[in-house]
């Protein structure tokens, strides 16, 4: 059995600050072909679709489509704030390598 991705409390808190749920939106995390390492993450606010995996917390939702789900098995979706900026991040145990910016990876 594959472990679904998990979402940290900090990521749900940031979504609540943004007010995504109040606007009927969720954080969509998808994997697409491309980037400097073969695959790249596409992270955006979007309306949930019928076939999405929905992860809920603090009244907010994170959704993953069925095509991206196998690439995100066991991954952790988080929100980080650093001197260079703030962003949602993905710690993906399936990635064998990643680019420096963290948005592209290979398996």
TrEMBL record:
PROSITE patterns: HESB. Residues 6-102 form the Core domain. Pfam families: Fe-S_biosyn. Gene3D superfamilies: HesB-like domain. It comes from the Bacteria. Transmembrane segments: none annotated. This is Iron-sulfur cluster assembly accessory protein. It comes from Roseovarius phycicola. The lineage of its organism: Bacteria, Pseudomonadati, Pseudomonadota, Alphaproteobacteria, Rhodobacterales.
């Amino acid at each position: 059995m594959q472990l679904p991705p998990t979402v940290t409390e900090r990521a749900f808190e940031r979504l609540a600050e943004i007010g995504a749920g109040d606007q009927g939106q969720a954080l969509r995390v998808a994997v697409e072909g491309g980037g400097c390492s073969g695959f790249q993450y596409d992270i955006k606010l979007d309306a949930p679709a019928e076939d999405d995996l929905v992860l809920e917390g603090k009244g907010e939702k994170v959704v993953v489509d069925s095509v991206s789900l196998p690439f995100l098995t066991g991954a952790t979706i988080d929100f980080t704030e650093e001197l260079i900026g703030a962003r949602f991040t993905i710690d993906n145990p399936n990635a064998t390598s990643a680019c420096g910016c963290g948005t592209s990876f290979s398996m």
